[in-house]
Amino acid sequence: GVQKINRLFNTYFTDMFGGGQAELFEVERQKRTRKKDEESGGVEDFVPEEEMESGVDIKVSLPQKKVRDISMLSGGERALTSIALLFAISGVNPPPFMVLDETDAALDEANARRYGKSLKHLSEHSKLIVITHNRETMNQSNALYGVTVGKDGVSKVLSVAFEEATEYAK
């Protein structure tokens, strides 16, 4: 499963960044547990154990930017990387539907456009409910639903299906 996710992760990452590479790799670390230190006033600290634990780590290479560690990425780059990983996991074992709540909040217009294209690809296998304020993401949608509050304080649900709106505009 990790190999399949890894291949899709690299594909989504490359599409979203317009190049570069991303890789998941398995790591083994010394297990650490959280313990309270009574001498320092009950402050919690991580204490290493003898037991080892396995996990995965991410290695990325951005086009035209040298990155040695994922912590060196900007907020938008981290968001795109995690979105690429989420989409890769969903691509290996597609869920019937997904709810994505403002996953594009940290993205600029160009990256939101790439994100929207990836949403289109993901929507071939799963039904998506995307909560967003981003116009570019809305542009990639098949239908929009919004909630507005009138002067009387009553909420109203609005919906627009783009195919119907296009026909109506003609």
Characterization of this structure:
The chain has helices spanning 2-17, 75-92, 109-122, 135-139, 162-169, and strands spanning 21-37, 43-61, 97-101, 127-131, 143-149, 155-161. The chain contains 5 helices and 6 strands; from the N terminus they run H-E-E-H-E-H-E-H-E-E-H. A two-stranded antiparallel ribbon has the order 1-2. It has a two-stranded parallel sheet with strand order 3-4. Strands 5-6 form a two-stranded antiparallel ribbon. Helix 1 (2-17) packs across helix 3 (109-122) and helix 2 packs parallel to helix 3. The mean pLDDT is 83.
Quick overview of this protein structure:
With 170 residues, this protein is an alpha+beta fold. The chain has helices spanning 2-17, 75-92, 109-122, 135-139, 162-169; strands at residues 21-37, 43-61, 97-101, 127-131, 143-149, 155-161. Strands 1-2 form a two-stranded antiparallel sheet. A two-stranded parallel sheet has the order 3-4.
SS field, number of helical segments = 5
Low-confidence stretches: none
Find the structural class using helix and strand composition.
Answer: alpha+beta
Instruction: State the major sheet.
Output: 2 strands, antiparallel
Average of pLDDT = 83
Number of strands: 6
N-to-C SSE string, H for helix and E for strand? HEEHEHEHEEH
Radius of gyration: 21 Å
Q: What portion of residues belong to β-strands?
A: 35-45%
Share of helix, binned: 25-40%
Strand order of the largest sheet: 1-2
**Shape annotation:** globular
Distance between the termini: 48 Å
